[in-house]
Amino acid sequence: MEIEAARAHLRSGGLLVYPTDTLWGLGCSALDSVAVARLLRLKDRSSDGLSVMVGAVEQLWVLGERSPTAERLAARWLPGSLTLVLPAARELPTGVGRDGTIGLRVPDHPVARALADGLPVITTSANRHGAPPATTLAEARGALGDSVRYLDGAVPQGVASTVVVIHAAGDCEVLRKGAISAAELEASLAG
Predict the structure, then answer these.
(1) Which H or E run includes 35?
(2) What does the pLDDT read at residue 97?
(3) Beta-bridge partners for 150
């Protein structure tokens, strides 16, 4: 499947497995509430907050609120394996974000960025809830079967993104350790 066909599939409400810089991702259009509900059912997951990938740093601020801390982290680490949890800048379908926030990232992977350029895409690991993330496209196919389409590409590095919440006061907190350490994040904010 080519990028444009994959984008058309997402725009029509389809589910897609695709490569990112971190893991094999499972996604749909982040603004399509019916597709998001299908994705949650497929993963056997509650709506406890799905993250979204966009194609460029400037596109973050369409969905999440801009702040000096968020801008500084985005300038240093994105594209890359960082997910920023920001106050949502618009209404989101149930299951996207949580408690008025949204997790956003710009992957450092050409296929994923091309897929999400101007089309916000859910980015969650390609597996059923509670199972280990797929490390190969074959594992993703085994876990998810024919209910999704597959977009091949360069193999992900296999380390999840670091998830950081930006608080209203401007401080941040690591919610999930990943490819970027807390010390690296702190250093980029200090300097």
Answers:
(1) helix 33-43
(2) 87
(3) 17
Please measure the distance between the N-terminal and C-terminal CA atoms of the chain and give it in whole angstroms: 43
Q: Is 51 helix (H, G, I), strand (E, B) or coil?
A: strand
Q: CA 41 to CA 47: how far, in whole Å? A: 10
Residue 188 CA from chain centroid, whole number: 22
Mean pLDDT by 10 residues, the chain (191 residues): 93 96 93 96 85 97 95 95 95 90 95 96 93 90 94 81 88 90 87 63
Q: What does 68-125 look like in DSSP terms, one character per residue?
A: HHHHHHHHHH-SSSEEEEEEBSS---TTBSBTTEEEEE--S-HHHHHHHTTS-EEEEE
Q: How many residues does the chain have?
A: 191
Domains of the chain from N-terminus onward = 3-190 (3.90.870.10)
What's the pLDDT score for residue 191? 63
d(CA 96, CA 42): 15
pTM score: 0.92
Beta bridge partners of 176: 163
170 contacts: CB under 8 Å, gap ≥ 6: 67, 68, 69
Phi, psi of 172 (to 5 degrees): -135, 160
- Interatomic CA distance for residues 146 and 165, integer angstroms: 35
Looking at the DSSP bridge assignments, the partners of residue 86 are: 102
The pLDDT value recorded for residue 85 is: 96
